[in-house]
C-alpha cells in the first residue's frame, strides 16, 4: 500500500459491512491459462476478504493476479470488502487476439481531414493500441486478417434495397500475421502497409488466356459487406471446447475494425445462427469504427424478414468509435458520409436534385447590373445573421420543443440558402453532457419533449478519457460562432437553474449513468410496459419475460433514429456479459480497456427465465448420479463429485444463475424448493448436503441438487424451438456452405477454405454420460466423445550447455549425456506417479526403480524384427513385446477386456454340466481371478483381483450362471452378458441346439464348416466343451496352456492371406508379434499438495528411442489446474536443458489437419525445383526401388530436420503389430520438425513438402518477452527465417543438384550393397 515505515494509521471498527462492500472488482491475470472453473474457485477464496488497488492475489499458493480496479456506487475506490454480491471480473493481459480489418470500399476514401481511412488505421489506431500493450507489458498473441467482399455484378450497390446484398459476390481473407508477439510490432506495421498496397490488385486482377489480365468486380461498402461471415470464420477456432491447451494465454478475443459507421445489412438466418454461436462460446467481440459516430443507434444490423425491413442491436458485441485525440476538439466534422459529394463536387453528382433558380430579369425599373447584384446577394448570402438567429431561438426553446415539431426535410428543389438556413435550427439540447448514450452511440434522454432530430446532435462527444461539452460551433459555420456561444451560455444557465430547482435531479442523473453497460437494448421495446417499468431501475428486466427467442440475442428497434427514454435503455440483463460492466459507470466512446486486457466471460449471470417460461417453453429431464469407488479422478465423497460436476460445466461455458428470479423460481417449486439453499460459490467441505445450484448455457439450464441423503440429482431444462420462427423459414433459402478464398501468411495465391465455418457449431454433450463418467462409470460415455485436453511434446537434441550433467571421472560424449538426460526425465515421471493413500506404503520400493528405455540406432522395423526373432529362438521376453502378464491396467475399456478374455489368451471358456444342467460358454471364478492377477500391472493380490472382478460384474460384463452370487474366488460358473459375447461364438449358435449337440457328441462327421477357419478371423477357434477343447484340430495339444498364449500367436488379415489360412494350422501361418512402444502412467502434478484435490495427469512416454529422432511425451487430462501443468512442464524443460535436450510442444494431430481447425494458420506447399525422380542425372533404379524418398530424406537431414512421426503405412508390417498406449498411429504422412522447434514439414506422397510454423511452441517461447529491446528481439524465436531458408533451398536448382550428387555419392560409397541408410528408410 506504499506506506512509509513507522507511519501513523488509524483503525476503525466497521459497524455495517455493507457500507464497505464493493460492487465489482477487476483482477488482471497474465502468463497463465486460468480456466473458468479455476476462476470460480479463485473467486470463492476471495469472498469475505479485503482488497486494495495493486494487491497481488494468491491462488493455490501461486501468485495468480493483481487487483487493478474496484468500484462502488459508480466510482473507483482504493480498497473495499469483497462480499457474496460483489461481481468479480477477470481480465487477461495474455490473450489470443484476432484482429479482422474490413477493407471495404470506404477504406480507400479520404477522411474529412484529408487523411485516407487506412492511414488512420495504421498511423493512429494501431500505434496507439500497440503502445498501450507495450506500456502495460502485455503478452498477447496477435493474428491480423484483412477481409472484404467483392461485388461481381454490374448493379450499382446504391440501387440495392435496405437489408439486401448482391447475389454474386466473392469473399477474400488475407492473413497478415499469425500468432505473433507484440515485440514484432514494427514488422506487423510494415506488413500491413505492404498488404494494403497490394490487396486491391490481388483480389480484382484476374488472369485470362494468353497472359491477359482484367479487373473483375469492386469491393462492397461496409454496410453491404461480409461482416457476419468474417465473424463465423474467426470464431470457428473457438467452437471446440477442448482445443485450447495454451498454458500461457487465457482466452480468445476478436476485434473487427471497419471504416463504416456500425450499420450492416445481413441475412436473417445467418444473423440468427451467428447469434446462437456467439451466445454459446466464451469469447468476446469488439467492433471498432474508424468513421464518425452516426446519428442513430449502433451497432445496428438490418435484415429483410418476410419482406419487412427490421433493425436490431445485438447483445453479443460491443462497439467503439476511434477519434484521433490530436485532432482539434472544436473542429467541425460532418457526421454523414457523402463520399460522392465530397469527391465529385455537388454539381457533378447527377443524383443531387439541389439546384439554383435561374435568373429571370423581370424588374425593368432596376438596372441589369444592380438586379444581378441583388440576385447574387440573396442567393449566395451568408447562411445566417445574428438577428434572424435570435428569432429562431425564441421560436425553438430547447426545453419546450414538442416531440412532433421535428424539422421537416426541405424540398429538394429549394435553393441552397433555404436548406442551409433550416439547419441552423438544429441546436444542441440541454442534455449536452457526458451521458452514457453518447459513448454508446444510442439516444437516451429522460425528457419526452425534446425532438428526436435535435437530440441526436448530443451523441458521442467523448474524446478518449475527456468529456467535451457539446457546442453549437461544432455544427454551425464560422460566421455564426458568436451568436451560438451566447445561446450556449443561456442553455448552461438554464441547466444550472433547473438543476438547483429540481429535487429529483440526482436520481435523474443516476438513471443516465446507470446504463453505462447498456451498449444494447436486450429486447423489443413494448409500449405497454413503459408505464410499468418506470422507477424499477436496473432490476427492470429481471422480472419480465422475453417476448421471443431472438430476444436472447438482439433487440429489435422499430425506428433507430427515434429518441428513446432512459427507462427503456436498461442494463443488459439478458446478456451473458452483463456482470463485466460496473454499475453506474460511464463508458468511453472507445473501449481501450477491452483492447488492452479483454475480459473473460463472467462466471455468474442474471439471465434466467420465469417459472411460467420453465413450464411452457422448456422440456424437462432428470437423472441421478452415484459415485463409484474406483473412478478416474480419484474422488472419495459425493461432495467432491458435485464440485467436479459444477467445475466441468463452468469449464465448458456454463454460468451460475443467481438473483431474485432464480430465488423466486426455486421457492415456487412444488416439492423440495428452498431459496435459502441456493449457492453461488461452493460451500466448505462437508456442508454441501441440501445445496442446489442453477447453471445456464445457451438454451440449457441445469439444476444440480445434493439431497440430505448424499444423493446427487440433476434436472435438465432445454428450451424448445420457436414454432413461429420455423414458420418464417419455410420456403426460404437455408444457409449454404461457406468456403471463402483465404491466403495465409506465406502463400502466393488465394485458395478455398477447408472448413465450413458457418455450419461448424460448438460441440454439445450428453450430460448424463459426462456426469456418469466423472462418477467413475467410464464406459457410460462412448470413446468418440472422450476427446479431452491433449498436449504433445517432443524432445530433440540441442547444444550442450556449460552446466550440463556430468559424471565424476567419466568423459561422456554429447550423445551419452543426452541419453542419460532422457533416463533421468523418465525416472522423474515415475517418481511423480500418483498413488492412492492406502497404497503409498505398499509401493514405496516400486517408486525407486528406474524404468528402462530401450535405445537403438538404425531402422525401427529391423530392430523390432530382431527382437521378435530372438524371442522365438531364446524364449526371453523382450521389454517392448507385450508379455503374457502385465499387459493391461484398470483403465482398459470393457469391450476390449471382454474380447481379450474370450481370445485364446484369455480365460478357458467351455460348456460345463452341473447337476444335470448344462451351462454353455462359461468360465470359473478362480480362473478369472488368476488371469486378472497375472495380466494386470496394477493388481498385486488375489483380493485386489477379486474386488476388480466384482466391479466388472457390477458393470454387467458377466454374471453368475444362475445370478445367485457375485464374483467368488472358487469353483463357480460365470458367463458373459449378451452384449459382450464374442461375435464368432454367436454366429456358431445360429445352427441350433440340436446341431450343436450332434456336433459335440461326434456323431456328425460331415464337413459342416464349423471347424474351417473363416477368412478374416483368427485361426484359433473356441470350442464349447471340455472334450473338444482338448482334442481340437485347430489347437495343438502341446500348446494348450492358454495362459502362455499371447496375441503374438494370432494371425490377422494384415499378416495372412487366404492361402495361408487354408490349412488351419498354426505352423502354416506367420506369427504376428505385438509390440507396444509407449507406456501410460498417472502422475500427480501437485506434489506439494497445494490444491484441494488430486491433480492427476495422464502421461504417455516412449519406451523405445533412437537418439537421432524425436522422443515423445503426450499428456491427457480433463479437469486439472493448468497452473500445475505449466509448472510441471517447466521443470521438465529445465531438466532437459541441463542435458543438451530441448522440450518442444507440437500439435497433437498431424500437420495436414490444422487448416481444418484453424483457417488462419499459416502454411505453404513447396516443391523441388529439380525433381530427382525425373532428372536423368539422379534417377537410379536401385535407389528408387528400395526407397523412392531417399533424396528427400537426405535433403531434410541436411536442413537439420528430425523425424517426428512416421506415416501409418510404416506400421503395416506382415509379422509386426505396433501400437502405443495412447492408441493406434494414424498419421497419413511422415512428419519432421526443425531443430529449433519452430517449423514442421510434412512429406507428401508426390514428393512435395507441406510446411507450417509450430505456433504452439513459438507462442509459448515468446510469451515471457516483456520489452522490445534489442536483446529481446534476438532471443525472440523467428519462425519466418526457418521457412524462408527452407524455401530458398528448395528453389535453388544449383544447390539441389550439388546436394543430390553428394547423396548419390554417399549411396555408392557406403551403401553399395543396396542397403540404405537405416535412419533414412523410415516413412
Compact summary:
With 1323 residues, this protein is α+β, with helices and mostly antiparallel strands. It is globular, with a radius of gyration of 37 Å.
Would you give an account of this structure?
By secondary structure, this protein is of the alpha+beta class. The protein has 37 helices and 50 strands. Strands 8, 9, 10, 13, 14, 16, 19, 31 and 32 form a 9-stranded mixed beta sheet that branches. Helix 4 (about 225-235) packs parallel to helix 5 and helix 25 (about 925-935) packs across helix 26. The two termini are about 60 Å apart. Residues about 340-355, about 385-545, about 565-575, about 730, about 840-845, about 990-1070, about 1265-1275 and about 1310-1323 have low confidence and may be disordered.
What descriptive keywords fit this protein?
single chain; 50 strands; 1323 residues; alpha+beta; 28% helix; nine-stranded mixed beta sheet; 37 helices; 19% strand
Q: What kind of sheet is the major sheet?
A: 9 strands, mixed
The proportion of strand residues reads 15-25%
Regions with little confidence, pLDDT below 50 for 5+ residues: 342-353, 384-544, 565-573, 728-732, 841-847, 991-1070, 1266-1275, 1312-1323
Report the count of strand segments.
50
Assembly annotation: single chain
Structural class based on helices, strands and sheet pairing: alpha+beta
Roughly what percent helix?
Answer: 25-40%
> If you compute it from the alpha carbons, what radius of gyration comes out, rounded to the nearest whole angstrom?
37 Å
Shape: globular
Residue-averaged pLDDT = 75
Amino acid at each position: 500500500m506504499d506506506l512509509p515505515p513507522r507511519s501513523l494509521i488509524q483503525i476503525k471498527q466497521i459497524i455495517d459491512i455493507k457500507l464497505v462492500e464493493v460492487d465489482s472488482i477487476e483482477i488482471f491475470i497474465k502468463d497463465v491459462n486460468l480456466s473458468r472453473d479455476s476462476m470460480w474457485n479463485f473467486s470463492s477464496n476471495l469472498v469475505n476478504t479485503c482488497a486494495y488497488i495493486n494487491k497481488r492475489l494468491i491462488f493455490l499458493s501461486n501468485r495468480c493476479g493483481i487487483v487493478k480496479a474496484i468500484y462502488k456506487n459508480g466510482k473507483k475506490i482504493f480498497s473495499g470488502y469483497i462480499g457474496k454480491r460483489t461481481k468479480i471480473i477477470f481480465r487477461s493481459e495474455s490473450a489470443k487476439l484476432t484482429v479482422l480489418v474490413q477493407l471495404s470500399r470506404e477504406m480507400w476514401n479520404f477522411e474529412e481531414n484529408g487523411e485516407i481511412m487506412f492511414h488512420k488505421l495504421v498511423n493512429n489506431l494501431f500505434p496507439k493500441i500497440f503502445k498501450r500493450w507495450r506500456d502495460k507489458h502485455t503478452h498477447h498473441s496477435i493474428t491480423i486478417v484483412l477481409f472484404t467482399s467483392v461485388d461481381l455484378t454490374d448493379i450499382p450497390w446504391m440501387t440495392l434495397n435496405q437489408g439486401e446484398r448482391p447475389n454474386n459476390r466473392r469473399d477474400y481473407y488475407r492473413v497478415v500475421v499469425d500468432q505473433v508477439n507484440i515485440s514484432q510490432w514494427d514488422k506487423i506495421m510494415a506488413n500491413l502497409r505492404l498488404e494494403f498496397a497490394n490487396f486491391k490488385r490481388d483480389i480484382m486482377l484476374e488472369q485470362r488466356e494468353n497472359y491477359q489480365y482484367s479487373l473483375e468486380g469492386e469491393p462492397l461498402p461496409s454496410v453491404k459487406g461480409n461482416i457476419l461471415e468474417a465473424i463465423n470464420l474467426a470464431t470457428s477456432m473457438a467452437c471446440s471446447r477442448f482445443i485450447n491447451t495454451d498454458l500461457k494465454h487465457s482466452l480468445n478475443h476478436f476485434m473487427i475494425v471497419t471504416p463504416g459507421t456500425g450499420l450492416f445489412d445481413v441475412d436473417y438466418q445467418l444473423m440468427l445462427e451467428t447469434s446462437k454461436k456467439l451466445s454459446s462460446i466464451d469469447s468476446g467481440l469488439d467492433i471498432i469504427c474508424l468513421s464518425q459516430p452516426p446519428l442513430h443507434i449502433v451497432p445496428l444490423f438490418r435484415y429483410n424478414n418476410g419482406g419487412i425491413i427490421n433493425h436490431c442491436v445485438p447483445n453479443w458485441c460491443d462497439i467503439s468509435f476511434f477519434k484521433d485525440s490530436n485532432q482539434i476538439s472544436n473542429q467541425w466534422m460532418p457526421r454523414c458520409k457523402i463520399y460522392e459529394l465530397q469527391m465529385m463536387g455537388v454539381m457533378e453528382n447527377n443524383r443531387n436534385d439541389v439546384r439554383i433558380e435561374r435568373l429571370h430579369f423581370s424588374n425593368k425599373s432596376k438596372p441589369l447590373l444592380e438586379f444581378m447584384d441583388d440576385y447574387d446577394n440573396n442567393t449566395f448570402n451568408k447562411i445566417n445573421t445574428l438577428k434572424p438567429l435570435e428569432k429562431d431561438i425564441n421560436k425553438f426553446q430547447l426545453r419546450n420543443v414538442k416531440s412532433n415539431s421535428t424539422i421537416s426535410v426541405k424540398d429538394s428543389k429549394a435553393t441552397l440558402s433555404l436548406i442551409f438556413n433550416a439547419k441552423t435550427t438544429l441546436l444542441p439540447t440541454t442534455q449536452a453532457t457526458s451521458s452514457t448514450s453518447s459513448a454508446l452511440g444510442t439516444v437516451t434522454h429522460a425528457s419526452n419533449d425534446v425532438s428526436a432530430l435535435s437530440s441526436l446532435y448530443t451523441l458521442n462527444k467523448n474524446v478518449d478519457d475527456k468529456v467535451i461539452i457539446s457546442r453549437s460551433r461544432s455544427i454551425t459555420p464560422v460566421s455564426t460562432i458568436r451568436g451560438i456561444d451566447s445561446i450556449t451560455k443561456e442553455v448552461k444557465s438554464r441547466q444550472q437553474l433547473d438543476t438547483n430547482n429540481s429535487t429529483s435531479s440526482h436520481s435523474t442523473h443516476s438513471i443516465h449513468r446507470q446504463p453505462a453497460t447498456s451498449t444494447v437494448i436486450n429486447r423489443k421495446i413494448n409500449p405497454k410496459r413503459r408505464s410499468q417499468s418506470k422507477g424499477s431501475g436496473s432490476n427492470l428486466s429481471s422480472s419480465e419475460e422475453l417476448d421471443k427467442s431472438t430476444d436472447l440475442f438482439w433487440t429489435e428497434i422499430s425506428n433507430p433514429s427515434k429518441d428513446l427514454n432512459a427507462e427503456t435503455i436498461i442494463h443488459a440483463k439478458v446478456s451473458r456479459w452483463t456482470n463485466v460492466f460496473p454499475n453506474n459507470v460511464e463508458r468511453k466512446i472507445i473501449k481501450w480497456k477491452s483492447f488492452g486486457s479483454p475480459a473473460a466471460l463472467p462466471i455468474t449471470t442474471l439471465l434466467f427465465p420465469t417459472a411460467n417460461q420453465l413450464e411452457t417453453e422448456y422440456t424437462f429431464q432428470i437423472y441421478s448420479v452415484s459415485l463409484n469407488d474406483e473412478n478416474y479422478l480419484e474422488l472419495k465423497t459425493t461432495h467432491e463429485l458435485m464440485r467436479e460436476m459444477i467445475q466441468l460445466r463452468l469449464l465448458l461455458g456454463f454460468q451460475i444463475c443467481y438473483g431474485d428470479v432464480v430465488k423466486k423460481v426455486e421457492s415456487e417449486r412444488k416439492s423440495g424448493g428452498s431459496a435459502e439453499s441456493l449457492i453461488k460459490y461452493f460451500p466448505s467441505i462437508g456442508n454441501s448436503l441440501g445445496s442446489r445450484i442453477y447453471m445456464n448455457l445457451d438454451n440449457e439450464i441445469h439444476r444440480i441438487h445434493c439431497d440430505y441423503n448424499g444423493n446427487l440429482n440433476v434436472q435438465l431444462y432445454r428450451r424448445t424451438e420457436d414454432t413461429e420462427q420455423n414458420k418464417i423459414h419455410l420456403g426460404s433459402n437455408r444457409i449454404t456452405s461457406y468456403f471463402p478464398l483465404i491466403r495465409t501468411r506465406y502463400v502466393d495465391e488465394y485458395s478455398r477454405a477447408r472448413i465450413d465455418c458457418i455450419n461448424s457449431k460448438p460441440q454439445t454433450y450428453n450430460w448424463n454420460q459426462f456426469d456418469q463418467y466423472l462418477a467413475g462409470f467410464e464406459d457410460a460415455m462412448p470413446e468418440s466423445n472422450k476427446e479431452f485436453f491433449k498436449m504433445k511434446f517432443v524432445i530433440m537434441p540441442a547444444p550442450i550447455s556449460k552446466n550440463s550433467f556430468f559424471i565424476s571421472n567419466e568423459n561422456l560424449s554429447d550423445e551419452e549425456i543426452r541419453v542419460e538426460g532422457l533416463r533421468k526425465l523418465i525416472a522423474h515421471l515415475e517418481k511423480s506417479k500418483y498413488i492412492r493413500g492406502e497404497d503409498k506404503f505398499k509401493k514405496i520400493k516400486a517408486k525407486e526403480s528406474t524404468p528402462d528405455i530401450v535405445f537403438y540406432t538404425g531402422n525401427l522395423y529391423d530392430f523390432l524384427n530382431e527382437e521378435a526373432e530372438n524371442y522365438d529362438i531364446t524364449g526371453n521376453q523382450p521389454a517392448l513385446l507385450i508379455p503374457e502378464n502385465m499387459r493391461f491396467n484398470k483403465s482398459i475399456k470393457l469391450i476390449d477386456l471382454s474380447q481379450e478374455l474370450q481370445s485364446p489368451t484369455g480365460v478357458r471358456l467351455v460348456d460345463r454340466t452341473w447337476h444335470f444342467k448344462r451351462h454353455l460358454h462359461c468360465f470359473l471364478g478362480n480362473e478369472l481371478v488368476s488371469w486378472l492377477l497375472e495380466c494386470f500391472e496394477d493388481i498385486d493380490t488375489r483380493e485386489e483381483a477379486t474386488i476388480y472382478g466384482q466391479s466388472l460384474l457390477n458393470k454387467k460384463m458377466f454374471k453368475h450362471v444362475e445370478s445367485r452370487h457375485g464374483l467368488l474366488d472358487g469353483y463357480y460358473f460365470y458367463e458373459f452378458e449378451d452384449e459382450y459375447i464374442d461375435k464368432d461364438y454367436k454366429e456358431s449358435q445360429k445352427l441350433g441346439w440340436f446341431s450343436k449337440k450332434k456336433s459335440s457328441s461326434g456323431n456328425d462327421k460331415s464337413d459342416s464348416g464349423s471347424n474351417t477357419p473363416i477368412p478374416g478371423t483368427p485361426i484359433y477357434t473356441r470350442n464349447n466343451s471340455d472334450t473338444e477343447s482338448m482334442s481340437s484340430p485347430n489347437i495343438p495339444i502341446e500348446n494348450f496352456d492358454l495362459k502362455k498364449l499371447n496375441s503374438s500367436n494370432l494371425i490377422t488379415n494384415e499378416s495372412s492371406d487366404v492361402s495361408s489360412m487354408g490349412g488351419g494350422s498354426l505352423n502354416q501361418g506367420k506369427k504376428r508379434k505385438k509390440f507396444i512402444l509407449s507406456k501410460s502412467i498417472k502422475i500427480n502434478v501437485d506434489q506439494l499438495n497445494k490444491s484441494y484435490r488430486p491433480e492427476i495427469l495422464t502421461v504417455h512416454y516412449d519406451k523405445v528411442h533412437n537418439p537421432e529422432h524425436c522422443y515423445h511425451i503426450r499428456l491427457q487430462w480433463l479437469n486439472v489446474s493448468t497452473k500445475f501443468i505449466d509448472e510441471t512442464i517447466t521443470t521438465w524443460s529445465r531438466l532437459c536443458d541441463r542435458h543438451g535436450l530441448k522440450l518442444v510442444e507440437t500439435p497433437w494431430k498431424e500437420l495436414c489437419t490444422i487448416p481444418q481447425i484453424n483457417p488462419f494458420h499459416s502454411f505453404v506447399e513447396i516443391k523441388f525445383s529439380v525433381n530427382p525422380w525425373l532428372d536423368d542425372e539422379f534417377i537410379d533404379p536401385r535407389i528408387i526401388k528400395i526407397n523412392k524418398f531417399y533424396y528427400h530424406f537426405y535433403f531434410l537431414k541436411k536442413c537439420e530436420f528430425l523425424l517426428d512421426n512416421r506415416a501409418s503405412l510404416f506400421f503395416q508390417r506382415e509379422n509386426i503389430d505396433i501400437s502405443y498406449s495412447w492408441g493406434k498411429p494414424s498419421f497419413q504422412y511422415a512428419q519432421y520438425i526443425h531443430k529449433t522447434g519452430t517449423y514442421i514439414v510434412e512429406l507428401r506422397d508426390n514428393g512435395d513438402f507441406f510446411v507450417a510454423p509450430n505456433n504452439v511452441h513459438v507462442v509459448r517461447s515468446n510469451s515471457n518477452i516483456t520489452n522490445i529491446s534489442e536483446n529481446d528481439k534476438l532471443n525472440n524465436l523467428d519462425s519466418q527465417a526457418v521457412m524462408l531458408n527452407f524455401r530458398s533451398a528448395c528453389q535453388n536448382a544449383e544447390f539441389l543438384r550439388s546436394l543430390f550428387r553428394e547423396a548419390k555419392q554417399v549411396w555408392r560409397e557406403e551403401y553399395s550393397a543396396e542397403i540404405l541408410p537405416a535412419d533414412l528408410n523410415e516413412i
